[in-house]
Amino acid sequence: MTATLRDVVAALETAYPPALAESWDAVGLVCGNPDEPVQRVLIAVDPVAETVEEAVEAGAQLLVTHHPLLLRGVHGVPADDPKGALVHRLIRAGAGLFCAHTNADSADPGVSDALAVALGVTVTGPLAPRPVEALDTLAVAVPVRDVDRVLDALAESGAGRVGAYSHAAWTAQGTGQFLPLPGAHPVAGRVGELARFAETRIEMVLPRHRRRAVLEALHAAHPYQQPAYDLHEQVELLASTGLGRVGELPSVEPLREFTARVARALPSTAWGVRAAGDPNHPIRRVAVCGGAGDSLLAAACSAGVDAYVTSDLRHHPVSEHLAAGGPALVDVAHWAGEWPWCAQAASVIVDALAGTVDVSVSHSRTDPWTVGAAEFRGGTRGER
Ligand SMILES: [Zn+2]
């Protein structure tokens, strides 16, 4: 069996559903023909000249990256533009480019799970869970002969859609009864006589925002003047998807040791790993967020963690966060913190298309910071 680009994209989009991407993001296939065969795939964090060259030299038909190549509005990809040149290079070499960005961040498992696993942190849940779609449950009794018509009408109006399935329903047979009072116009039975009928009870879930449309469809399709139905709001559970992860280390260790653990676990970079907080502060509960995670500083505080590992942190937010009693902060190179995801994405493809695609992870160090110099003269606050 030969896998096509479409097969690889399907595997990746099952693991990292595009619907999980933030509204401003640009994810999915940038270039490549879905009908063409794929034998070799390279996975990297950044779509830059080094990784594009690595993919072409390896004879890959697909480069998968975490960061998008074209995030803002693009009117063309001329070869004399740095990004356009990469698109040309890939297409001429017969290779596609696929990006899984904030959809890979929010997916379960996703980018921050890979980071947590690398650090030896056992994940208990997302740091910022995504809101789960609010659902209602509708239960309605329908005369047996009308079941198919009512069920179809409910399904057409948006009920019974669960994940990749539509028309999902549960039914049970029972007996309904009514006594038509003077002024009633019953479809069956007579005024003043108790009538009993074989009925089917249909239960379906529906997105809460479709409630009005579903009830209108119910009233239109149901043969009774007053259909008997129950409508319940489902309890809203916390999602397993969302940005960042919270978890626990196997045992308590001081911040200085935890920082060394992070440095050992991630690929080395010119700037290395730095931490903010008391070096002796005991660390057990940890939050992590691959990529620039300063927007989740407040979430890390309310999660009650001892340390928060992320990237691209700045002086003032860090200083103010610590002054307010927030958890210790560990700042890693953005590239290094997201690199563990590459192996996760590789296993997604290997698991879905076993034996047909050769998948490898790029070791190009695409962290833009290339020089680090530190001359430590001592001081009161920090240590090396
Ligand atoms: Zn990133």
DSSP strand tally: 15
How far from one another are the termini?
55 Å
The set of bound ligands, ions and cofactors reads: zinc ion
Summing up helix and strand content along with how strands pair, one would put the structural category as alpha/beta
Described by the principal axes of the CA atoms, the overall outline is globular
Pattern of helices and strands: HEEHEHEHHEEHEEHEEHEEHEHEHHE
Give the helix tally: 12
The description of the largest β-sheet is:
6 strands, mixed
Low-confidence stretches: none
Helix content: 25-40%
Tell me the β content.
Answer: 25-35%
Estimated radius of gyration: 28 Å
Q: Mean of residue pLDDT?
A: 94
Model description:
This protein has 384 residues and is α/β, with parallel strands linked by helices. It contains twelve helices and 15 strands. The protein has helices at residues 5-15, 49-57, 82-92, 102-106, 111-119, 147-156, 211-221, 255-265, 297-302, 315-323, 334-338, 340-352; strands at 28-31, 40-44, 62-65, 96-99, 122-129, 135-143, 170-178, 195-207, 229-233, 242-254, 274-276, 282-292, 307-311, 328-332, 358-361. Strands 5-10-12-13-14-11 form a six-stranded mixed β-sheet. It has a five-stranded mixed β-sheet with strand order 1-4-3-2-15, sandwiched between helices. Strand 13, helix 10 and strand 14 form a beta-alpha-beta unit. Helix 1 crosses helix 12, helix 5 (111-119) packs across helix 12 (340-352) and helix 6 (147-156) packs antiparallel against helix 7. It starts with a helix and ends in a 23-residue tail after the last strand. The model has no long low-confidence stretch (mean pLDDT 94).
